[in-house]
Design goal:
Length: 72
């Protein structure tokens, strides 16, 4: 598998993980009608922020252009 393809898969995996972590409290409280503790919601927010940061880093690596210094 090429490096570019692996980067793309990592990018999609982080997007999926971000969506799962961000939407989990909404789904649990909305569909199940349960009240979640504030600590759990705060943890979900922190994890989502971290995953979005990681997403930006992977996106930057994925879509960057490598400058070799050689003119074509």
């Amino acid at each position: 598998m090429s490096e570019q393809r692996l980067r793309y898969r990592a990018f999609l995996a982080v997007v999926l993980a971000t969506l799962v972590v961000a939407l989990a409290p909404v789904i649990v409280s909305g569909l199940l009608g349960k009240v979640l503790p504030d600590g759990l919601i705060a943890t979900s927010d922190k994890v989502t922020t971290g995953l979005v940061t990681l997403l930006g880093t992977i996106g930057g690596l994925l879509f960057r252009r490598v400058d070799t210094g050689v003119e074509r």
